[in-house]
Amino acid sequence: MNRIKYSLLLLLLPYGASLHAQQKPGLTWKDVSKWNFIRGNSYALSPNGQWLSWAKGPTEGDLQTVIRKVSDTTNFNYPIGASTSTVIYSKDSRYAAFKVSAKEAEVKSAKKTMKPLYDQLVLLSLPGNQKTTFEKVKTFSFSGESSEWLAIQFTAPENASKDKDAPKGTDLLLYHLSSKKSYNLGNVAEYSFNKAGNILAYTIDANGQNGNGVFIRDMKTGLITAIENDKANYKSINWNENGTAFALLKSNKNEQYKEDVFTVIGINKIAGEQTNKVSYTGIDGKNFPKNMGISGNGTPYWSEDQGTLFFGINTFEKKADSASKDKSAIKPADQAKAKPQTKTDSLAKGKAEGKPAAKADIEKPDMIIWNWQDKRLQSAQQTQETRDKNYSFLSSYRIADQKFSQLADSSLKNVVVAPQHLYAIGYDNSGYELMSNLDGQSYTDIYLIDLKTGIKKRIFEKFYTSSGGTLSFAPNGKWASFNKDGAFYSINLETQQQYNLTEKIKASFIDELDDHNVVKPSTPNFGWSSDSRYVLIKDNYDLWRISADGKSAISLSDNWKSKKQDVQGKFSIYPKDKGTDLSKDQYFAVFNSVNKKTGIGLLEAGKSSIKVLFMDDNGYGSFNKASDGNVFVYSKQNNEKSPELYISTTANLANAKQVTKNTPDQEKYAWSSGVKLINYVSANGDSLQAALYLPANYQEGKSYPTITYIYERLTDELNAYTMPGFPGGGFNKSMYTSNGYAVLMPDIKYKLNDPGMSAVACVVPAVKAAIGTGIVDEKRVAIHGHSWGGYQTSFLITQTNIFKAAAAGAPLTNMISMYSLIYWNSGGTNQAIFEASQGRLTPGYWDNWDAFARNSPVYHIKKVQTPLLLLHNDKDGAVDYTQGIEYYNGLRRLNKPVVMITYRGENHGIAKIPNRKDYAVRMMEYFDYMLKDKPAPEWWAKGVNRLDMEKHLEARAFEKAEEQ
């Protein structure tokens, strides 16, 4: 083992714990259930920036919506039931609306009684806080930019038919916000306002299809125009961006076909009765492919110039075709005469008379045929069967000359239409799909499609997509950028001329941290400027503004590489913009890979240098801007402080004001005393880092029991807050640090064909470096990981005895058998994952036996001396259940201390709350026993007989209730 070198970089310093702080209790699992926090996906800022809303509440229980005025402390709280609801604001910010779901107790009761539950809708008038409630609401929508109306669609009555052909229409209430007058439209199936909000398009689906059709309502005059009526169903209303035209689908029953026949309808030049309508069905039409029809699964849309309709097509089967294939079908008259008979009788009689048996009576084997030439495994085809059946091939219909063009087909499935609808790009991987599914190396042929002529031209053959992905279009639709062989290029779609964008820049555009088996993995492409003149491309640190022809390049971040600082990403705060508008202020996330400081940078309008506004030991995100006001919002967090929202009214984010109060109960409990960043050298000679999170009430000079948590590279999340909860993998950092544990999270750098040995080379020196700080008690160190972390945990304990205990969740344990097993969640094989993704072992084990065996935990199982808690669920669709069974049985055969927990019916991560809670509690019981000398839990010390399991679970539930 190489001599370990390390240094400490202290990031947070709250060491001096007061007596009061020391007396604070650690979190219990009961506290986690009651833990009150803001739901991170619920933030909403009003268009004028004057109101901010969020949902908050306990981990288990009912929630509240908070609406706060950002300029003062005015705020309103409303109960919203057990589900998170995001507030929607009207465009003028005078109104807010949100749904209220059933309470948690009602949800639990309904699961037992099968009683239907309904949502309420709450409408608020701001700032007066006048509240109006609507019951049994299905959907709602404000009327675009007009802010005059609220459309509310109600759920169907309880006694409504659930048959697939039953009418889907329900009442739609149009509520005038200022006058509070209501207008009801019955039997509405779908509705949608245009951008301006002055026109409502809707469809009717009534009983017996009476009055079915597509309608428009002028929201100023109330005049309703029937665009079309028919005994048909209508769906998928889709307005164009400007709100001047929309397209939708119509379906009719047709005796010739097994399925409904769809028609695409385009509506434009909207002017009441004079509105223009275009209909196209396609079947049996000129140039329309045989046995195909317009698909009901896609969403149609207009071209930019409203000269073309785009839609999907798929296979349609005629009834006559199926009848002709089954020549032995019994006629209705014959069926009436036939006597009831068994299937065997029918077969015997048919055989005796020399007639083929009726199709319905033929006994067929239930089987799957796996052929070595299948491009996708049969299991993948089965998993993706619904997607395959519903797949739509992109097509177009040009109105002027009534020309149909099929843009995508069975080979060229993936077709992407460029902005302005002048060109499309098609990707054909059919010739490479089989090998891609075998070795993970992806290639495709790329075609340029001229949407005016329909001509397709191959512009790239065997284009490598594993490293750089697909083409990125410029907003004008005439240029695109892409990565190839470690460099970035542009292509003029009109001339097909290519330009090397990065050849003159003295920087690498190959991702230096990507250690997968991928050839020259690409650094990020930030896309085009809104005027299509520039491409924004990042090397490993700096962001470059490069002209479309590659002749000029400017670093917007001015040699940040010298201080290991980089542009992590761009905040999208102008949702209507196409591309990055450099005439507006643009904001970026910035990061320092050495000290893990993060911040926000500003590229001022018209300038060419990003200015860092602030950068410190916090994590920043959720950055946004009010669409109609100079108000900015962002979140701020660190290891000890939960995410809080801040508001600023200046472009440089000065004088930002905190407007939320997250995790109000945290101050009642002991909490982590900070985090240290450890620099160390791996056994392979790589300079790496590890995050060491200090336990609550940390005292310098004292050593603590420590959990080493591993996955891959984790230190970039140094300043992220861990919300107490019941995760699917069982481990929660905040829960452990609150209860006196230190938590170590090291980075792991991988060598190809040595994933397990790489983990050993990185993790063991990290643990020794952490012990060297005096914070970690070397006799009380455990390790835990889930999935890939579970694999590395199960492998590490075969190579080192540095850990007193280990817990491995859903681990790969035999790389040889795992290589050819199936990833059941997708149906594909693991081979591609091994050879080009996380597995990092290539080629197959038959040519690489030593590496596969060297990195497989099961082949070193005799060396295990560390007690192991193993989790593997029986329906794991990522890591096959047999991997856990094999490792458990091997350890058991050798009389090694191991307990495996299996939650029946659970997948790779635990989903059901009772199971998540149970595993989290058991894991901590196990670590408390192994590292804190607490009594061994019975399930670990003695096990539980299958016949006693019910009593065991009931007793634990009672004990936990008493404790909590």
UniProtKB/TrEMBL annotation:
User: Positions of the region Disordered?
Assistant: 322-359
- Tell whether ATP-binding is among the UniProt keywords: no
Q: Its GO biological process terms?
A: proteolysis
> Where in the sequence does UniProt note compositional bias of the Basic and acidic residues kind?
322-337, 346-359
Q: Which domain of life is it from?
A: Bacteria
Identification of the protein by name: Peptidase S9 prolyl oligopeptidase catalytic domain-containing protein
- Domain Peptidase S9 prolyl oligopeptidase catalytic intervals: 764-932
Keyword entries, A-Z = Hydrolase, Signal
Its ancestry begins with:
Bacteria, Pseudomonadati, Bacteroidota, Sphingobacteriia, Sphingobacteriales
- Write the signal peptide boundaries: 1-21
